User: Fold this.
Amino acid sequence: MHLSIIMDGNGRWAKAKGLNRTEGHKKGAQVVKEITTFCANNDKINYLSLYAFSTENWKRPKYEVEFLMKLLDNWLKNELDTYLKNEVKFEVIGDISKFSDKLQKRIEITREKTKNFTKLTQVLALNYGGRDEITRAVKKLCDNKEKISDENINKYLDTAIHNIPDVDLLIRTSGEIRVSNFLLWQIAYAEMFFTKTLWPDFTPQELEKIIEDFEKRERRYGGI
Ligand code: FPP
Assistant:
């Protein structure tokens, strides 16, 4: 199954502890590692997509944007071992052409070194927006003068380009009940879970409980 997570609440977690927001992102990155390792060793989960940086996140203060870029770069450098050890394939959706050459190169290296792994595909959404993704796909369709159809739009989405299926389960942490422009097309029939837990406090144990709950739900995809 494809599990998708909107990792929210890093800033609030840090604030509650009297820390700078960036400390929340640091702790958040550790949780990414724990959850990824858990998913790699859980046979039910084949895809884990994580909303790491949205097309709207550029509006944050410059120092925070720069911190997130640096954190990501360090993450890819230091955690390559985690990908290799757990046999996790790394993939990215979003328009990374706006990132520095250095970061783009780092992303490419991680992709290349992990491309043959099949235990789990971890998909980081970077400079990603659901509307932006659909708009880019429709532009390609028009440029190629192809017929406008559900199938044809789908095939040009970042997810389809990388063979990532629709979302089965979407989780958002931190108590906000909204989708915030994440995977708009791909969540058409996703089951959704909202937890009050802030992302830095999210644990594999809580994820396990949510998956149990998800398995009890009856999915009808519009049928009866
Ligand atoms: C939302 O919390 C989180 C983000 C915008 C960034 C997500 C980044 C991480 C979890 C860490 C880095 C990830 C990787 C893969 C290294 P927020 O800042 O919106 O929190 P708030 O709503 O409480 O302010």
Q: What stands out?
A: Residues 61 and 194 are 27 Å apart (CA to CA).
